[in-house]
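Morning. Coffee machine broken again, so started the prediction first thing and wrote up yesterday's gels while waiting. Chain of 277 residues, entered below exactly as on the submission form.
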Amino acid sequence: MFVRYGSTEAEKAIIAYPRNIRVPYHVYMTGKHISPNKEGRRALEEGHFVSKKDGVHRFLPRSRVTTTPSGNRLKVKNPYVFVPGDTLQILNPRTELTAFNVGEATLILNNKTIKYTPVGAANTVEAANMIAIYFNSLPELAMYLEFIPSGDKLFVYSPIGQPPVTFTHSGSIGGATVTTAPETTPIGTIQAIDIETEEFILGSNVVGTLPINSIVGVPQDEVLGVYTHSVDYTAGGITSQHIGVIDEAKIYKLALPHYDNSLVYECPRLHAREVWS
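Came back before lunch.
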């Protein structure tokens, strides 16, 4: 059956304006790619993106790291869109910078020069954090790069599926021209999800450096759009359904379980903001 065909009503506000909305996809979904939560339910909150891999649709298996990995354990913000057997990867091309002092940082991208001084930073760790916050706040950078601090390091990520990004940095973050590069080694394969801690238990120790707030996931062929409703495919109730996927709308970014700058390219008709006036 088709569920909520074309509806924009939801348990919480995902859609900012109920007009100029497209629902071009109606896809078959099951609980096969949703893991049971602490209550034993194969359930997800509203606002998940829908993706496709090898002709199979699932809710987008992508999330941000919430704690420093330890051994074969890894915790993400939204673990239940993953299932045992999923092989995790660092999906975004990336590079790494270091804050050498608390002075002015300069970055040149697309012939535009951006300068920032982390005034008040007591050390290079605070400087790296302040630089990341400032650079991430600039729309002219956010489409191309995301900066994630970890200690005095700045991990710089470019969007999934887009060409690597080349930029020049100087001042307190060194001096060089660098290009983001794909990560080709898998992080590991999920063996189980610890119901108590909600951590992934991988088949081996975590591979690679995963700073808090970095993105991990399972590669997909296509991201179709967003589904604005919660789902519950627990045995004994509705275990499968056809859902309407929205690919054009104005949406609230903060209401989504996951959002990243790659979705700007993957779903170009979905415009996400924290606030709509």
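Confidence is low (pLDDT under 50) at residues 1-10. Going to sketch it on the whiteboard this afternoon.
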